[in-house]
Amino acid sequence: MPAISDPILLESASCLAKKIRKQEITQAFIKRIDKVNPLLNCMVDERFKDALLEAKAADDLIKSRKYTEEQLAEKKPFLGVAISTKDCIKVKGMLNTAGLYSRRNYHASEDADAIALMRNAGAIPFALTNVSEVCMWWESNNLVHGRTNNPYDTSRIAGGSSGGEGCMQAAAASPFGLGSDIGGSIRMSALFNGIFGHKPSQDIVSNEGQFPCAFTEEENSFLSIGPMVRHAEDLKPVLKIIAGKKAKLLNLDKPVDLCSLKYFYQENDGGGRHVSKVDRDIVDGINRVANHLKAKFKRPVEKIQIKEFRYATEMWLASMKNDSGYEHVHLLGNLKAPINPYKEMLKLPFEGEYTLVGLLTAILEKTQCRYGSAKYCELISKRNKLRTDVSNLLGNDGVLIYPTHPTVAPYHMEPIFRPYDFSYAGIVNILGFPVTSVPLGKLGREGLPIGVQIIANCNQDRLCLAVAEELERAFGGWVRPEIIEEV
């Protein structure tokens, strides 16, 4: 990694917003992208010229003194601050391929709701980041843009489908960004890249303007757009903006008394089938968090074992079934016509337009339980009971510390041999709870970031965010990727 030579790159988006919003800030991040992207392949499209013009307009607005500093902070809290997002969330005029080859030349004609809200708050979209094919895999690799590398070790994955965004943040190439999450995408990518990522409570942030979109109202509740940042203090102000009118449901400005919370922790899922054992570094990290909270706040931190978590994979797969008539073959067909995955598999060595993972997913989908079957009903019932049980456990003043993923960032292609490891994150989506992935400072034995996820009850996002800020103070949060000085 090239050295981080400009101190501007180390600032939080909130700090940048409080300072003079000069064009130099945007230029600094553009220069950083030029240095790191050839190595990492995290950015896939840009609007640098327009972003610089918009930064100048922000400068002019400030200099005009039309508004006081206080008024600007209220009306445009991120005025002039550049923002990146993944290539599945629409930004007007930019690519919106979702990593699908047939969409390689498709450009968005309008902004997604979340991007429009960030623009209204003064943020300037300037770069688009890489994803997995149709955003349904946890390594960001596709036939349109290629593969994204982890900034701590380029032989490792950056995660998916928000891996490009996680990588962009970890490499200090963007002040802050947005990701989306239906099976752990924000949080796994945050863990692997050592940054913060928050999946909001269900139905709080609009998903309008994503491709692929959810097919049913229930599936839409599993999907969420959320902030991905290097500094925990940026989580709350971004969430407040993208939640729009529903932000009032979260009471984000209500203080959180960390001394009065109920704390629970669980080290593993209890033995899920075909799921990796939790790394020792991650277990140690969970225990360090528990010990810190116990010592500082003089509160019991209870070790628990929610046994139903071991069925997370089965419950998630069943929850993705619906009566819309759309399946993975339709997503790969750009929602126009379903593809034949067996026929496309034969083309793979020659002129294939789909990834191996995408085709295998489409084939294996046929082997899973059918919507409405007895097995489906059993798993949905189990999920609903689990939701009630965890909700009762947490109440309005409890948080659960749990692994974001059983391992640190795997090597490229390794996820294909342990595909169900995503279940540690995916289970929270189908339960609908808010959850924050938190890096724990120093790197693990393999030189890679380690972290945990903090889960709270529905609409208690502020508890997750407050604990995340505390853990950043205690353990250091984001760590700069190892630097190889340029000659």
From TrEMBL:
<dbReference type="InterPro" id="IPR036928">
    <property type="entry name" value="AS_sf"/>
</dbReference>
<dbReference type="InterPro" id="IPR023631">
    <property type="entry name" value="Amidase_dom"/>
</dbReference>
<dbReference type="InterPro" id="IPR052739">
    <property type="entry name" value="FAAH2"/>
</dbReference>
<feature type="active site" description="Acyl-ester intermediate">
    <location>
        <position position="185"/>
    </location>
</feature>
<feature type="domain" description="Amidase">
    <location>
        <begin position="24"/>
        <end position="465"/>
    </location>
</feature>
<dbReference type="Pfam" id="PF01425">
    <property type="entry name" value="Amidase"/>
</dbReference>
<dbReference type="GO" id="GO:0012505">
    <property type="term" value="C:endomembrane system"/>
</dbReference>
<protein>
    <submittedName>
        <fullName>Amidase domain-containing protein</fullName>
    </submittedName>
</protein>
<feature type="active site" description="Charge relay system">
    <location>
        <position position="161"/>
    </location>
</feature>
<feature type="active site" description="Charge relay system">
    <location>
        <position position="86"/>
    </location>
</feature>
